[in-house]
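Our preliminary data section would be incomplete without showing what the modeling component actually yields. Below, a chain of 398 amino acids is followed by its predicted structure, encoded as tokens that our downstream tools consume directly.
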Amino acid sequence: MTYLKSIFFFVLVFCCLTVKSQNYQDSLRRELTDYLNKNSIPGLSVSILNRNKVVFKEGFGYADIAKKQAYTPQTIQNIGSVSKTFIAVSLMKAIEFGYFDLETDINTILPFKIVNPYLPDEIIKVKYLTTHTSGILDNQEIYNRSYRFEGPKVQNELLIKMMKENNYTSDLNDTTLITFLKAYLTPQGALYKKENFSNSKPGKRASYSNIGSALAAFLIEVKSGMSFADFTQRYIFKPLRMNNTNWFRTKQNAAKQAVPYLTADIAFPFYHLTTYPDGGLRTSAAELSLYVREMMKMLNNNSGLIERTSAIDMFKPVFTLQSLPENMSLQTRNKGVFWNIYNDGYIGHDGDDPGASANILFNKTTGIIFMSNIYIADRTKILSILKKYAPLLAASPK
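Predicted structure:
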């Protein structure tokens, strides 16, 4: 009798937890739908994980409003600077291969020499690229020209005005990663200016640098003898079975790709990035879940993607109050190797680009993915919703 009572008790508890989980899912759906409608968002997708599986995945709204194409967890879009976390994992793999380490002088690797014109004797190490303290700046007047917009000429006057104001001209001749970096960072280059650099010593001042991030990826190209795209395909996408994830728009992923929107009424042309490793990855919430799950495994010391010591180094907070660079605060986060180490216990990264917003967050027990095909300047509300429900859903029955 005692045995039967025990079975009954556990069944009862399981059923209660299942009902609670369903209630949490229903409540989350209502809040996400309300958020989408109140903020005129074309489409979005959310995925929530625990250690073992995806416990919630759903799309809302439209990937293409004109065609009434639903935004689903399989919808592909640009994820902006979340892409930089793939540079982080690739760097750790490259270090395992013995290509270099975080203390390496980048000029011992590069086929051309980079010298900060304000501080010509200072050494730029790999680690400074990963914390945005290298002294290499994004000169927006030049950098935004490196976005390569595709398709027919833009007709909408508001979009034309916005693109002109932001210098999205797609008029650069240096359209490969190596030619752009060389043109931008060496005195002989057509895009070179002193203003492409800071007058602060490496490690002493933080300034978010897409170009510095792309340079870190290029170091891997130089030492591996393959493109960064091929490196990530071999060592990240293929092992994780991220079969539809790509740095470029292809025949395979074009039909699944969300239209990027300026507003719910105005669409951007599709585009790709010359400095693609810094923000050009195209993937879905479903496939990004595979990646986030692997990052959670790294925190739990059971990933096969990189070694345990590499994962520890990648996620280790770099700065202390004593070593804090100028222009950086520890109020909400620290930095790892490209990763943001948040004070609330999550690790992750955010991403923004024309017609794109994305966030990934995770700790040892919970993972969160958010993607939308419009730029959302302030994502405080949506992230607070997701952080409220994610731990509850992650604790649901296996």
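The longest strand covers residues 54-64. Residues 6-17 have pLDDT under 50 and may be disordered. Preliminary results of this kind motivate Aim 1 of the renewal.
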